[in-house]
Amino acid sequence: MRPNRPNVPIISTNSRIRWWYSGLLLIMAIFAVRLFYLQVIRHDYYEKAALSSQLKQYEIPAERGGISAHYGDKVTPIVLNEIRYTLYADPKFVVNPSNTATLLQKIIGGNAKDYQDKLAKAGSRYQILAKKLSLEQKDAIINLKLKGVGTQPVNYRTYPQGSLASQLLGYVNDDGIGTYGLEQALEPTLKGKPGQLKAITDASGVPLAANRDNLIQDPIAGKDVVLTIDIGLQSQLEDILKSGLDKAKSSSGGALIMDTTTGDIKAMANYPTYNPAEYYKVENANVFSNATVSAPLEIGSVMKPLTAASALDQGVVNDNTTYYDPSQFTVDGYKITNIEEDGGPGTRSIADILQLSLNTGATWLLMQMGGGQINQKARVAWHDYMVNHYGFGQLTGIEQGYESGGSIPDPIKGSALNLQYANTAFGQGMSATPLQLAAALSSVVNGGTYYKPHLVDAYVNADGSQDVQQPVVVRKNVVKEAVGADIVGLMENVINKNWPIYGMSRPNPSYAIGGKTGTAQVAKATGGYYDDKFNGMFMGFVGGNKPEYVIVVRVDEPKIAGYAGSKAAAPIFGHLVDLLINNYGVKPKV
Amino acid sequence: MTYSSSLAIGRQRFATSQQNTAGFRTQKRTLGPVSNTIMLVILACLLGLLYLTQVTKTNALSYRINDLRAAQSQLKTEHNDLEVSAARLQSLERVKNSDTAKALVSLSASDSVQN
User: Fold this and answer.
1) A97 and A237 inside one domain
2) Which of A167, A210, A332, A486 is the most buried (most CB within 10 A)?
3) Residue A358: per-residue pLDDT
């Protein structure tokens, strides 16, 4: 007999398991729905949230290219990069401003009270205490473990040669952008290409390698640049220019030396100058400008050799031509006269026009281009030479920021055109930069080839190889070769006759030394000219069988007796000629 | 020929001709479904472990790479600093103001050399 079972509800084992399964499935279903919501519907949101804390993405700055220049046979750096440190504070976390300021002052110098004021500035979260600290100073500060004080590395341009060639170089502003000079003109080349870092990182920001989506693109450093200038010559040019300006009691001026056979600029300077490492201390922004390239002016009588070259090249005169000079011409109702020392009316030669600097002679040359009078034919012909042969009125393309092309009057449209053009024949009523003048004279005295003036000798690639820049011929047949030789002789004659007036040493007959003065009235902003303000210029060359270097000197408003070109600019030219012959290997005539 | 060797030859003969003989039939051993599943799970776990060790190893290398990058950067900075120092030491201004230069006799403005 089977024993009776206790009276309990009968629930089979299978049924219990089914309940458990159902419960489990329900929970799993809830999980699945929740996961679907989180992972599929809210996918973008959570992905973004995760990446924002794990993914680091920033730009790796490229190192800016350095700038070097020749120093005799060597190449030496004149602009480099240097890491310096900015010291900052977050006043919210500074514990003892007074003590902190004292400790900092012992390391970085300066005024502890100023630091204390900044450290205690309420409401501010960022105060810059000092800039350009050295690595040693930075380390010393870090070792103090001051609360609320930190340092940040900043890349700066540094200039081992100080203010040498400052206007030519330009500077890099706080935003890392090249401003003025080479830095501005070569900004795309010098700045390089920044790299990219996009990677999953750990908490301390170290990129984790095991992520296939990491993107680490190294920056491409800017190219280094080697300049055509020689820093020894540049330094001496700056000294000679400064000394000459002081003697002429002039507050500003400039000069340049150019190789006639390549267009290489060997030295280029302006005064006053500045230290590009401390550009922020400069009060007058005009000082930044490389006036030799960017400030066109009425060039005065230095234009006369170019006027003569154009008349000779057109065949309307030859180097033996003589003419009767009445000592004054009336053009469009205005009298064109000469300086007092012209000797009065008389028979003159082309050589006389340059040696005596006859305005009437230059006007007469222009007349010859028009068949004996100033007319449209003369104006168009002379305009063609000024613009299309000598390159006035247009940029030379030199690697400089803010280059100016100057201005040449239109030969057909306008009023009193004959007078305007008569003035341009002796360098008034138009404007050009000393650089344009140097390039134009080079093209005449080298036999007719206009080379693009340039400052870059070579670009240095990442592997150290150099892309040497070949001279760029802008145009040939500027004038005929024979005309160039005539002008060399005519300008040599000017120096041979006038060197005592110019305050120069007696020219050495073994060398070709030629030149021409220019004294131009300063134009008023409101029109017309000042009666008592003149700019002095001198344009010339030095060489042996052929001119090797062209030199252009500009002296602004000298305050000494005599003509600005002869008394202020010419002596500077004379010193530069001596310097080039004695120290820079100008080959004598053979 | 011994008796046992003659028996062995006889067995081989039967075996090669694949005639059923109850004494020589081999038993085929296979894993059951549960064992298979467990094996697969263990294999998957091992593979996962392998993957994790490799990922961890690779990530550990990140720190080495990072250290090397930092060292490279530090060396580059030092190189730049030395280059700047060298350039400053050779600057014209410094040479001009050196004791040696100061001891030199200064010349007045010179004329060009007469050959």
Assistant:
1) no
2) A167
3) 94
